[in-house]
């Protein structure tokens, strides 16, 4: 059996019926048995970033995020695009990590998905800039921009587009290999 790989999955959306959260869960369903996921569900619980309260270990919700990142071998992020950028809740979470080392050299895959023809390309680019600044290891061939997500993922969260399924399997495999 292959080594167990622990991945932290983060959706950039806190919307209940988020296509990016559904996509993230679909990706988890594609993973081999040795890849174990933890879904980070605390984006909405994080306080607004403020360096004045980031003393000692930081606020309790921030400590939870940092701990989950420390324990993960790698990270996969799935995000929509809001207002031509990264959703505020995701950017806020990343701001809490700027002065720490949890993301340093952490293998990371980045996926943006949108119902628009652009697939969230501006959020994707912005997210990559922030992750590189905090020294995340963006896995080569571990990024994907998905336009028209609502035509490729049904309401039950099942990937209906065979090409997308293959692309996601490739991203997942690349991330898994980077975690060894």
Strand content: 15-25%
Distance between the termini: 13 Å
Taken from the alpha-carbon principal axes, the silhouette is globular
Compute the CA-based radius of gyration.
15 Å
SSE pattern: EHEHEHEHEH
Main-sheet strand order equals: 2-1-3-4-5
How many strand units?
Answer: 5
Helix/strand class: alpha/beta
Largest sheet, described in full?
5 strands, parallel
Mean pLDDT across the residues is 96
Query: Total helix count?
Result: 5
**What percent of the residues sit in helical stretches (DSSP H or I)?**
25-40%
Polypeptide structure, described:
The chain is an alpha/beta fold and 180 residues long. The protein has 5 helices and 5 strands, in the order βαβαβαβαβα. A 5-stranded parallel sheet has the order 2-1-3-4-5, sandwiched between helices. The protein is globular, with a radius of gyration of 15 Å.
Question: Would you summarize the structure shown here?
Answer:
The chain is of the alpha/beta class and 180 residues long.
């Amino acid at each position: 059996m292959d080594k167990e790989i622990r991945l932290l999955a983060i959706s950039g959306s806190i919307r209940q019926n988020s296509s990016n959260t559904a996509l993230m869960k679909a990706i988890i369903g594609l993973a081999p048995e040795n890849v174990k996921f933890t879904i980070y569900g605390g984006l909405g619980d994080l306080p607004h970033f403020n360096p004045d309260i980031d003393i000692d270990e930081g606020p309790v919700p921030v400590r939870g995020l940092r701990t989950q990142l420390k324990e993960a071998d790698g990270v996969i992020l799935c995000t929509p695009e809001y207002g031509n950028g990264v959703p505020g809740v995701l950017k806020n979470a990343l701001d809490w990590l700027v002065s720490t080392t949890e993301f340093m050299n952490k293998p990371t895959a980045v996926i943006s998905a949108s119902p628009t023809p652009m697939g969230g390309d501006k959020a994707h680019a912005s997210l990559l800039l922030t992750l590189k600044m905090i020294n995340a290891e963006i896995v080569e061939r571990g990024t994907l921009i998905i336009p028209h997500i609502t035509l490729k993922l049904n309401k039950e969260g099942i990937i209906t587009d065979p090409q997308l399924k293959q692309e996601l399997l490739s991203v997942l495999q690349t991330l898994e290999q980077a975690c060894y």
